[in-house]
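Board notes (copied after class):
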Amino acid sequence: MARVGVALFFLGLIFAVLALISCLSAEDGQVRGLPRILWVLIILFFPLLGSVAYYFAGRPIKASATPGNWRPGSGFPEATRPKRVLAPDDDPEFLRKIDNKGKQEEDDLLRRWEEDLKKREDDLRKREDTPPTDS
């Protein structure tokens, strides 16, 4: 008999916690009957009775999500839809800019290497043309 009492106690506690969560997660204007703070106090002071009362008299009535309740145009209005921000790897302008920048950097690097190679070749030719000096 004691096990049944403990089980009923925990079921009532779970029911009260669920009612409290439902009450606190509802928007301010959605809770019916009393202000939300009063429902919270009723659920806290009278857990079983307060929870039952909240579910019958205070809980917001949610519109069912059945296909029959859907109206065309009741979704997200296009005019107020925020602009979609593209990720950098999806933005063609960004990719083109990176591609052009990379090509320019590669061209500059190649030009510097060629100048350096030409300078080294000229230095080697000058060394070969001058006879070694004996000291």
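Comment from the instructor: The two ends are 117 Å apart (CA to CA). The helical segments are 2-25, 36-45, 47-58, 92-129.
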